[in-house]
Specification:
Blueprint: H1 2-20, H2 26-44, H3 48-59, H4 65-70, E1 86-89, E2 96-99, H5 104-116, H6 132-141, H7 150-160, H8 170-176, E3 184-186, E4 192-195, H9 202-208, H10 213-219, E5 233-235, E6 252-254, H11 261-268, H12 272-279, E7 292-294
Antiparallel strand pairs: 1-2, 3-4, 4-5, 6-7
């Protein structure tokens, strides 16, 4: 019995060792981590396609030494503000310091924090979350990687694996499949709007797209007497509570001439009541030119 038991244990150790050495394919990686990328998109505003493509590229589908030994899927180096575990590996220089995690989920979360907490990436969060090409180019121009083809490689991965399909939340998929077609736009905080065209009225717009006038007015903080002009944003769903989900950061807008509270609400896709609450404005208050308006 002891001999059999030892044989089983020995076989188990060998099988476990062999299993741990099996390389993940790109398909395996996507299936394993796409839900994590979507979760981070909802938490931070970073498109899931971008996060997953970076994970694929930086970790070699999860097979690199950094990914296997340090659970570091994004090649994030230590930098001056890292006080956690580290691992050393060759990159641009020999024996560079990289961050090390005990779980892959912590690598994904740190990737979100890394992008949202550094001002050099701020411009990315003003982009339509479906615009993966601009996100990829923005990451490269902001200095995320030194490879001059970094953006093109990300875009190729996203398009070949159709990762852009992950960037529309289940709620917005219904809107995407509606009759808005190419007119549909999405703000960085994930809210859908359509640009008002010449010759349209609120009544004709509502009728054309099967929306009630009352709900359309409510979505846009408008009344029956409000004037809507060509080029205005018309939201087809409830606006957000704040501009983005960027972590631990206050987002502001300095008011220009000819702008008012409603302009800010429509431009950034924030509910008027929430905008007033964020800024502690009394009912009916209108911010003045040059005033700093909190968006989050």
């Amino acid at each position: 019995m002891k001999v059999i038991s030892l044989f089983i244990i020995h076989s188990f150790i060998i099988c476990s060792s062999l299993f741990s050495q099996v390389s993940l394919s790109r398909t395996d990686y996507i299936e394993k981590y796409q839900k994590l990328a979507i979760r981070e998109m909802k938490r931070s505003g970073i498109p899931a396609s971008i996060t997953l493509a970076q994970g694929i590229l930086e970790s070699g589908n999860g097979n690199s030494r950094l990914a296997k030994e340090a659970k570091n899927h994004f090649g994030i180096k230590c930098h001056e503000n890292w006080f956690g575990s580290v691992i050393y590996a060759d990159d641009d220089l020999q024996d560079e310091c990289f961050r090390s995690y005990n779980k892959v989920i912590k690598s994904y979360r740190d990737h979100s924090f890394f992008l949202t907490s550094r001002s050099r990436y701020d411009e990315l969060f003003t982009l339509d979350p479906r615009d993966y090409k601009s996100w990829a180019l923005g990451l490269q121009s902001s200095g995320y990687a030194t490879n001059k083809e970094y953006a093109l490689r990300l875009i190729k991965i996203i398009e070949s694996e159709r990762l852009f399909e992950l960037d529309i939340s289940p709620k917005n998929k219904k809107l995407k499949e509606a009759r808005f077609g190419e007119r549909l736009n999405i703000t960085p905080n994930g809210k859908c709007y359509v640009i008002f065209q010449k010759g349209e009225t609120i009544e004709s717009f509502a009728a054309d797209y099967g929306l009630s006038i009352n709900r359309l007015l409510l979505f846009n903080d408008l009344t029956y007497s409000s004037e809507v002009k060509q080029g205005d944003k018309i939201y087809i769903e409830k606006k957000a509570r704040s501009f983005t989900r960027k972590l631990r950061k206050v987002i502001t807008h300095r008011l220009n001439s000819n702008e008012d509270a409603h302009f800010i609400s429509q431009f950034y896709g924030i509910q008027m009541c929430q905008l007033y609450g964020l800024n502690n404005w009394p009912v009916g208050y209108q911010p003045k030119e040059g005033e700093l308006v909190k968006l989050k």
